[in-house]
Amino acid sequence: MIKRSCSSRFVLLAFPAVLLLAALLSAAQGSSHFVETDSIPVLGYQIVNTYPHSSLAFTQGLVYNEGVLYEGTGLYGRSTLRRVDLETGRVLDQTHLLSTLFGEGVALWKDRIIQLTWQSGRGLVYGKENLTEIGNFSYPTEGWGITSDNKSLIMSDGTDILHILDPESFAEKGRILVTANGTPLKGLNELEYIKGQIYANVWPTNWIVIISPESGEVKGKINMQGILQERDIQGSIVDVLNGIAYDALEDRLFVTGKLWPKLFEIKLVPEAGSD
Ligand SMILES: [Ca+2]
Prior knowledge:
The chain is mainly beta.
């Protein structure tokens, strides 16, 4: 399995695309320990729309609001926070992080955007309109994904723990211990709060899990295998599925991945062959 370390992220970028795709498919299959516990309902997807996405964006955070995607990208020296036009994928505005920071998840809170960083223990706060940094905060874990349930911020750190943070003070108010059939589910990455449940990418797989915030139990899992085809990447280098955003007004669900040239609007459906 490809480990999530600084060096391995750059090793990933040196892989030929075909080999990388094969490695990722292998990793996704090999790391599917929770998939084998089959009492969790499986969903598939239908592609509703396909949009351009910057193949230079190492997507670590994604959220939608009023026609615009807010996207956080990673890698040292390349991390950004950007506003992106959904239809064209055009970057409307962006701010660059210090080269010592590796950008991670993003969430909206009121007129602010919150962005995590990976191993710096530092969260960044921006004004939503102009992406100007207006504050920061610290946390004792790694920072991976973050979302909001309109009362709190919910943050992942790469383990099976979701941290519930006060959105004003960033103090931890509680934790959700995530389990799939009673087994801790690690690797929780990019998050999105959708209609009372938490959707999470599971690094480094093609699975998205649907988590009950009350119990931490995985209530459903979405098999995203195959959404990005080899013909889509045409020799370019891609990394794993990561990035979930939701348009609550129009009930639209968006997904993409790190360095993916496409972003998809999807509809969830029962997986073929499942009950
Ligand atoms: Ca998200």
